[in-house]
Amino acid sequence: MLTETITTQITNALKAVADCGTVTDIFYVACGGSYALMLPNQYAVERESSSIAGQALNAAEFKARAPKRLGKGSVVILCSHSGTTPETVEAAKIARAAGALTISLTHVPGSPLDEASEHTINYTHAPMSMSAEHSPAVLARLTFGILAAREGSKLVVDIDAGLAKIGGIVDKAIADQKEAIAAYAEAHKREPVIYTMASGANYGPAYSYAICIYQEMQWIHSACIHAGEYFHGPFEITDFDVPFVQLVGVGASRSVDERALAFAQKYSQRMTVLDAKALGVDEMPASVAEYLQPLVFSSVLRAYADKLADAKGHPLSVRRYMWKMEY
Amino acid sequence: MLTETITTQITNALKAVADCGTVTDIFYVACGGSYALMLPNQYAVERESSSIAGQALNAAEFKARAPKRLGKGSVVILCSHSGTTPETVEAAKIARAAGALTISLTHVPGSPLDEASEHTINYTHAPMSMSAEHSPAVLARLTFGILAAREGSKLVVDIDAGLAKIGGIVDKAIADQKEAIAAYAEAHKREPVIYTMASGANYGPAYSYAICIYQEMQWIHSACIHAGEYFHGPFEITDFDVPFVQLVGVGASRSVDERALAFAQKYSQRMTVLDAKALGVDEMPASVAEYLQPLVFSSVLRAYADKLADAKGHPLSVRRYMWKMEY
């Protein structure tokens, strides 16, 4: 039963983290779109923490890999929208048995993941909008809350300030992009292959768009190319008619994105470019804009997906295998 | 000037690791195919080390991310075949300036990466064969040598025993696969999209095959799908005519591979399956077979690539952009 507010749930989970004897590792464990939400958090821990190692793993891989560092010094953060993903529920049980502190995100109170975890946060779900209570925002609040609790990081204050603005930023960005979104949908409705490309914290939303939107929901072949890896293999498939959706971020990895974009734009006539600056990401505090930009990209990309689905006559809800059979 | 043997170079690098005050992190830093070689090493550190965190990063991402844990407690292992990859050379300089111990692999003595690093190992290069002096073997010897030096791990003995057999295993596997390789090449020579799939330690060679062979050397659209992620998005693009090359490994993640294979084989008629057991990987000590199997897969996959290139009349050496222009 949901009796606490989301903020109270987060506060309680962070109090447990503060009361831990030691924290050496944060494992971020989930599958698919939920796994993609974890990637910017691993990125943030690596950039900001001197004493904690962060690692995002697919839940089946987590079980198989059985990280030797998993134990009493570990916080394991898990996410499953339905709370029923078997691999993620099992990962929570494994983590808890190893003595780790488990904190789970799910939309469904009372779900198996909720039951399996010590702390649960029941986030808000509403695509094409964003708030401090959406799942990726809850993850950022947890990550920077842990860094505050364990290392005295002050960035959580800026995270909260950024999240207070993010709803308005996303609404405006989607409204501003209306014509670009319509043009993209018409131009790509018959494409058999569309790549996504990003780096840094934005690899997560670009990966999610490739595997959850293109492959899963639109049956379009895709891969998420890391912009730094692009020049060491993938760029050879670039040609005038090969479409890419590229995210250009703010912060440390922007130059990596810009280098890939400069090349790709020269040889492909099919680039769709989403620039964090044009989407208003810079209205958030500069100290955390790079960590929160994936939330803006993912919401805006969902608007791109929605319109593409309309143009193709292939609703985002259609599946041929998922939820329809045992697998 | 190459005056030391490869084994002496490794021994000297490991002596420096043993003499370090502390080692909290190993960063594996490279680009493209060399980055792919790093992934099984991150995997091994996560499975086997209780005190050291392992992290593989593209070199441009490493520079941008600027991990806060990078410092005197870090060993940074880098690789560039030519020793001239600018991002990797720069990463070595950044790591060294931060106080980390730098160990580089390159085929070219006196190259910029050699010059930038404290220790260099000049590995043997000969595709479609394998030995203890090939680059992925040198990486395994370093990784398990570090675990021996810092944590007393005994596995390096089994690594050496496995590497003593691996040349023969690879030669036999390629000979045994001759008909399968010829059939694969003919069946795939006109395919515009071919996926690869793997999990665990074998994600590295499957990623390399997708980005270096298909995208770079054959101009075929591709993505490496993690077998655990497959069910959370990518599996929806599976159809009777969609080709996959799947690696089925030995060890902890085999069940992840088998689950994906069982589904994919049901809905695609175009599965090419390479099973580590059929390739003779089990002849190596069971304690390390899962860590050394990527070396067998990558060598056998190169034989698959060679034959595909013949069937397409598109040599593996052809490029349209790489080495031909500034980028």
Automatic annotation (TrEMBL), chains A, B:
Could you tell me which residue ranges the SIS domain spans?
13-173
Q: State the UniProt keywords alphabetically.
A: Aminotransferase, Transferase
Superkingdom field: Bacteria
A single Gene Ontology MF term assigned here is: carbohydrate derivative binding
Q: Which GO terms describe its biological process?
A: fructose 6-phosphate metabolic process; protein N-linked glycosylation; UDP-N-acetylglucosamine metabolic process
The record ties this protein, via InterPro entries, to: Fructosamine_deglycase_FrlB, GlmS/FrlB_SIS, SIS_dom, SIS_dom_sf
Signal peptide interval: none
**Lipid biosynthesis keyword on record:** no
PANTHER family from the entry?
FRUCTOSELYSINE 6-PHOSPHATE DEGLYCASE (PTHR10937:SF14), GLUCOSAMINE--FRUCTOSE-6-PHOSPHATE AMINOTRANSFERASE, ISOMERIZING (PTHR10937)
The molecule here is called: SIS domain-containing protein
Source organism of the structure: Pseudotabrizicola alkalilacus
Upper classification of the organism: Bacteria, Pseudomonadati, Pseudomonadota, Alphaproteobacteria, Rhodobacterales
